[in-house]
Records
---
Amino acid sequence: MYRRILLMITAITLVAAACGSSTDTAEAPSTTLGTTTTMEVTTTVAASPTTSSSTTTSSTTMPEFSGFPVTIEAPNGPVTIETQPESIVSLSPTSTEVLFAVGAGAQVVAVDNQSNHPADAPMTELTGFEPNLEAIAAFGADLVVIMYDPGDVITGLEAIGIPVIMHPSAATLNDAYTQIEQIGAATGHTDDAAVLVSSMKDEIAATTASTDGSGATYYHELSPDFYSVTSVTFVGALYTMLGLSNIADGADPDGYGYPQLSAEHILSEDPDMVFLADTKCCGQDAGTVADRPGWDTLTAVQTGAITGLDDDIASRWGPRVVDFVSSIAAAITEFRDS
Amino acid sequence: MTGEEIRPSRLHWWWLVVASAALVSAGLVAILLGAVDLDARAVILSIADRIPFVDVDSGLNNRQEAILWELRMPRVVLGGVVGAMLAVAGGSYQGSFRNPLADPYLLGAAAGAGLGATIAFAYGSGLPSGPIDTLPLLAFIGGVGGVAATYAIGYSVKAGRTPVTLILAGVAVAAFLTAVQTYLQQRNAETLREVYGWILGRLSTVGWGEVWLVLPYVIVSTVVILLGARRLDVLSVGDDEAVTLGVDPSRVRLVMVLAATLGTAAVVAVSGLIGFVGIIVPHAVRIVFGSSYRVVLPLSVLFGATFLILADLLARTVASPAEIPIGVVTAFVGAPFFALVLRSSRGLGS
């Protein structure tokens, strides 16, 4: 019984980490940077026609002729898509962001209740945790993107002829890029996806080149009970790229990547910087952190090196990874200057 | 009837001394050990420094002092308070219902508190905040509400009302509340991990605030339960016999269960659902020292505190510096330990 619950927690942590929060973004931390980056990317993509369903009037080259049927080597095996999908259902918040960023937004008919970005994504009551096959089919889906199969979703949908791409949490940036390219190929936006990926690579390369966090340590908080990430995780690797050292490394004997730290450990490690990925879910900010018992002795609390992150951006592996890297880089710059 | 035999015995004063010594030693070990190594001598000096009129330099820096006094110490104290309360409440429930399997969560306290906690996790940010945090408040209300609903249903039974009726009502209430809780949890999937973390119990984020929050309830409940020990002994001969001995069974039951529920709901509100303590500790005491509630209840207070302090010590050191949920430890360590006690007790006059 307890073992089962533990296993569930393990699974749930992954999923929950991937989902962030469904609360309104109005209370997002003020330090959220780099929205400009996303805009830039979107514009790039929008330069090529996105309304693929009614594109006969468009004069530019049409990516949708790029070879349907296509076969995608998805993590759940080869997926063959016969014609360009017009009714995509996404049950993954990250994939929803990707779909819109590669210009396939107009082909999306429904997204799950956690897909809160972009704002014009057609959010429904569908859930990625307990997907209902009939509800998905009722949207007339001709392509379904999920990040996790709780049981027989893939089998069930394929049995009624709906191709399913499963894109689980990316382990590396390259995984994330591959997912974007696959979504691009699957939706007829191969070129847009390539543009997006190369612009992301450029942005991240530029940020990492101009930021040096080496020598500084950090603590990335997933929840107020001190769940954290180590450097083996997707998010942790991004910090590593910027030169920071993680105080949770070594606190994760099984190498699972998401250990629950003890407050004692955090205080004793005295991280130079604290990043909160629980601002939206759990209302944490520099003030609540300083109020925790004993935390007023932390150097980061005293110097104000506490950065509130957007939970969603910090837990997804889509186009807004660029924004995440920029916020961390900005925090590092501020830390260096102070 | 459960076949539980009465082995009348007095509470010897030296049992209390032994139990208190065990508690103090466990507390000391728990304060000395933790995720962070603090020099044992420095810790002792730091404790001595807090004694009025004693002024010594412990050699700990500010942060180490904070670790010791604002993280470790309240946690050990709260572990003791929660363990004592759950154990004595378990004993009280077992006596009230003459059911060896009764635990403090029997009448819907756990399911109610779980529902309250889930509401707090899912909608807490939207609720007005008062002087007490939403989570302990709603968990407390849920726990008390669950038991109140059980009583309301149990007492609405007109004919053939027995303790079993109440237990069955508890089963129904718990099932219903758990269903609501699971539904809310699925609707707010992002809270799943927090909710499960809470259900497995945790002492990990506590400070002194939680200790002061629950202590009044725990003291009142424990005193009421201890004062009722003699009546529980009378009750153990059966309701009819108890009446002839001048004790009103349903009244005793009501008082004992209410006291146990109040205390349980208070500790559950800050520590989550820590299982097994309420069953293992009173039974172990009963097997070793005798089955009179005048023995079981006071010793359960002391050994319950000792047990949970040690369980929490394991929870925060075994995977150090990561933590494992304390509910896992109490079950993982407690169940085999209990089996051992059960086994070695065979033929010891029970």
---
Amino acid sequence: MNGAASAAIEGTLPAHALRRRLSFSRMPPSIKACIIAAVMIASAALLAQWVAPHDPNAISFANKLKPPAGMDGHAAEFLLGTDQLGRDLLSRCIHGIKVSVGIALLGLFIGCMIGTTLGLISGMAGGFTDRAIMMLVDVFITVPNLLIVMVGIAVFGNDTLVLVVLIGIARWESYARVVRGQVLQVRELPFVEASRALGAGSIWIALRHILPNIASPLLVLMTLNFPSILLLESSLSFLGLGVQPPTASLGSMVGDGRDHLIFAWWVAIVPAAAIVIITFVVQMLGDWLRDVLDVRIND
Amino acid sequence: MTEQPVIEVHDLRVSLGTDDGNIEAVAGISFRVREGETLALVGESGAGKSVTSLAIMRLLQAGEGSKAVGIGGRILFRDRDAGTIDLLGLQPEAMRRMRGHDLAMIFQEPMTCLNPVMCVGDQIAEAVLAHEKVSSRTAMTRAIDMLRLVGIPDPASRSRVFPHELSGGMRQRVMIAMALACQPRLLIADEPTTALDVTVQAQVLDLIRRLQREFSMGVLFITHDLGVVAQIADRVAVMYAGRIVEEAPVEDLFAHPLHPYTRGLLASVPDATQAGNIVQPIPGSMPALSHLPQGCSFQPRCHAALAGRCEREAPPAIAAGCRSVHCWLHAA
Amino acid sequence: MLRFIAWRLGRATLTVMLVLVACFTAIRMAGSPAEVLYPDGAPPEQIEQLEMQWGLDRSLPEQFALYVAQLARGEFGVSIIERRPVTEVYGEKLGPSLRLAALALVIGILCGIPLGALAALRRGTPVARLAMSVAFMGYAVPHFIIAIVLILIFGYHLNWLPSTGAETASHYILPAVTLALPLVAAIARYMRSTMLDVMTLDFVRTATAKGVVPTRIVCLHVIRNALLPLITVLGLEIAGLINGSLIIETVFSWPGLGKVLTGSVTRRDFPVLQFGVIVYAVAVVAINITVDLLYAVADPRVRVRS
């Protein structure tokens, strides 16, 4: 019964159809490439210490501002060149990916948690609570999120943990609205009424009937939000407001490279390219996931 | 009513490319509509009536479910100078000049068929401006005249309203005004009254008849409603699975239907004048156009099918006076 | 119509109120208001006067009311770093910011709409795919990366355009284009999408059946109807525009609000930060109301209903 009912809610497919659509062999080649890229990025993030050829913080003035392979004056052991302090860009990028992607992922989950919880409360409670939370959603949609995060940094400082939380808060309202929408739909369904008649409490209904149905829309939403969160952190770090040295994210690396743009453009462009590639890959995966899971994000 | 046909369709074939392969939506039909005459094209949904009308207007496009459109046959149209043109041979720009000017079409859903952000007066005036070199003021005056002609009260101020401010019947009148603004010789009406209440239906049918007499137009009226046919048609052509199975003057068709399908249709309509009348539906349903049976398309559902012949060959038109029927039962 | 305006104003006021609450809370959390607003230490009588003014001996809601009243009087405090009234610090910065944002908006609309329309009308052709790839670039690449790439190419290697300051007209080009690019992308994507939807609608077929010239059908029937949902989209993109201007103004050393505000964050210059936040919040809210009104005026269905 649950299968049929959950299929009635937009956004879910029966398990066997899902498995068929997600089978690796059926994916278009561009998506396969994206998945491989994503795996590589994730490995870089997780295994940074072992994957990076050099110590990202090893300063060596003798080697400073060496260009990447293929250009005049490059040094063989520094594949992507070095920055103004002689640090290997490739290694710094790999560690930078770890920092940027790490912060973004953590922030993503926090935002999802907050958003889902508030969405659930809003939908289940109804009435004034619902309106109040929706008002809050309105504010967060209207006010530019960079501004909100900046105020947060001014008040709470830019410790990495603080950054994670602040950035996570940035897109909470997208999850809240989706979850609330789902709750409102499910609330009216006959089998929920029946459960209630049998004495089931709201929390149990929430966990048993609502959460399983919001899994795919939330997954898609998270994938689609990841680029904006990554860009938010990158922008902040670029401006010097985000991660502080010695921690380096891709964004702060681009910011540091800004001063050397004329004669050593690679210092800024290499991490910038990394950001663009990661964003692109995740964007493609998110769009594909949305099509495959047949999810329509109803606002 | 003269004998001059406004339009003669010869062996029209329309094939649509779908995901399941090519299907023949219209499989070779021929008919004519004379000046001042209303020919009703009757049939169930999917019989090919709308496709026929869109093919005549050359409005069929790929997209929305069909990948490609192939049209064959000839559609001979007699224009104002009494010359004959094959509409299917015209270049797109030449066809555009004919649409709205020599032949016009009205559709079923007037709400969605009118531009929501343009006032109705402008939309009628647009039809005039598309074909005649007049000032916009003149076009607007013509539009107001047309509104008056179709029976809309206070046309001058009504011309400035938007479609959503009008009732269904009024919107259909506006559609008619738009279609007839340049006094075309042929009006194609694709189920214009299906979405309207019965009382409004009668008014709109009345209006069409009146304007037909006034402009001496030929009218090709498409419907699935036999009641409407009885009210408005002079001749009737019955379509089934992409073919015309019978054609006759309206009284003859109702009084003496020849084709088993026509008989079945009439028997399945409740007769208000006879108490205790039993409604007889035709068993089965019309075949999908991608899976037509061999021979006569109606044969699987026909209680009078001739074993052998009906299954082998599709019957040609068999004339009987001013009627024709495609049925082996009536072969000489 | 009047009721609609009143309702929107009400919602807008509520939003601004919530922003003020946030600012109020933020300042409270950063330390005592006397320290924050007048950091150099002030004579005890002034502190006492301040505490009375702020009602620090009163309940929080009353404090908030006083706070709002103070803002309404235009007393935004003194910059912690520069020891000057906040309003002086911002001084002439509103103009350049407005001009930059306005220029970016114009570029966004003038480029985005035709791009999207082209992609819709020539769907499936290489031209359309090219148009959408360009749009994708603007969407996927963040502001600051676009900025440095453009500076690199046009500022240094080709040396065509200046990249800092705002003295001459040519100074406007790089920042405005950088700011506009994501907007062009967003508008192009939405325009293409709504046009594809509108093109399948029945009234377009009616217009063809009337014999209207195809160009006119596209312009008057398709585009006019496709522009309507685009207006709402514009409202959503304004926040993005402001996000972007905060970054762009810093990267290009543009003498505007954003640069001042960004600078105030690390230095914990709360009075300056607060002023910037309030101004931006009010701006966004005002623009959203304007967009809603614009939509109501443009769509006759809404006009009559409200």
